[in-house]
Amino acid sequence: MKMQWVYDLRTFLLNFIFCHVTKVSFSTVRMWFYFRLVLLALYFLLLFFLSRLLEAVSWYQGNSPFFYSRQILEPISLSVLKLKQILESRGISYAGVVEKQELTALVESSGEVVQEELDSAIETENSTPQSSIFSKTTKSTHFTCGSHFYEEVEDTKDSVWLVQVIPSGLTQPLLDTSTWKQVISKVSRFGVRAGIFECSLDERLCARKKWTTPQLVLALPRGHRAKQEVVLHSYLFPAKAQAVLQWIRHLLATRIKKVDSPDELENRWLTYSPETPLSEIRVILMSTMSQPPLFFSSLAIKFTGRVRFGLVNISENNKIQWKNKLKVSTFPVYLVVTPEKQLFTVISVVKPLILTAWASFKVAETRNE
């Protein structure tokens, strides 16, 4: 009986110890499992923060693919070739300018440079005759008859046409093929369309226009109101491409109104009088340039009657006066004036596509109102 009692006690103790140890072991395993899950979660969280930190550092240094194209560049750090390519993309003449310092000043006078603009300028200038960019920028319309000319050129009120006229009985145009392609490749990027008209297709039209010699014709809308008649300007003198481009720049620059004084800017541009249509939008370039960039002049034609474009020539004598007037620290600036609350926005980075898209949006917004 005594031995049975001892045996039962031993069995009880062994079962108690076994159950207790087993319970502790299961609890320990469960706690260790949760601990490993927490460590794994912390590991992935750390990787996430490290990746975001590396992206932030990459963005700050300008190496991120998304922000790299919007990185502002210092013109003085660019080569002479790249400076010329930027000037070409903006439609600014650098004829007679040789020194890098002068080229840098020309670039700075029209706005800051971003990587995206430089890449686009290099791609356009380096395009080969086999590339799609070259074929688009050197494309010419061959008019088939007088009505075709009227339909495309004189009935289009918001575009610019450069037409090479070849009189009857002549086969040699004013510009040879190489020079002609060079000219239209420079101006087509600004919306100037090109064409060739042979007077043998419609001699009566050429007689009415008095096109008796080979010449270039530049078609521009008259005045600053929408849908006005088109005026034809003729260029008769054989010349190199640079002279023709300068002639085009000069004619298109007449579309930009020059602002001569701070009072004129305040009264006629920054404020709206009761007689002024509230739908009118205004863009003013304030720069040391005496002639606006070709892209700016071409925008004035595209938005004739809807957006008014002006130019303020900044000199060393009046620079401080203009800075105090507009509360800006440097030039050039693009003033965008809208009817809402008569406020204006200052833009320092020259972006022709952004200006075009913005103007299109504001015009559409005004029409909807």
Structural write-up:
It is a single chain. The chain has helices at residues 2-60, 65-68, 80-90, 100-108, 115-125, 132-137, 146-154, 177-187, 203-209, 241-253, 262-268, 294-302, 319-326, 352-368, and strands at residues 72-73, 113-114, 141-142, 160-166, 192-198, 215-221, 230-235, 257-259, 281-287, 307-313, 333-337, 344-347. The chain has 369 residues and is an alpha/beta fold. The protein has a five-stranded mixed sheet, sandwiched between helices. Strands 8-10-9-11-12 form a five-stranded mixed sheet. The relative contact order is 0.09.
Secondary structure tally, helices: 14
Give the helix level as a range of percent: 40-55%
| Secondary-structure content class | alpha/beta
Sheet of most strands? 5 strands, mixed
Strand content: 15-25%
Summarize the structure.
With about 375 residues, the protein is α/β, with parallel strands linked by helices.
List the helices and strands and how they pair.
Layout: H1 2-60, H2 65-68, E1 72-73, H3 80-90, H4 100-108, E2 113-114, H5 115-125, H6 132-137, E3 141-142, H7 146-154, E4 160-166, H8 177-187, E5 192-198, H9 203-209, E6 215-221, E7 230-235, H10 241-253, E8 257-259, H11 262-268, E9 281-287, H12 294-302, E10 307-313, H13 319-326, E11 333-337, E12 344-347, H14 352-368
Parallel strand pairs: 3-5, 4-5, 8-10, 9-10
Antiparallel strand pairs: 1-2, 4-6, 6-7, 9-11, 11-12
Helix pairs in contact: 3-4, 3-5, 8-10
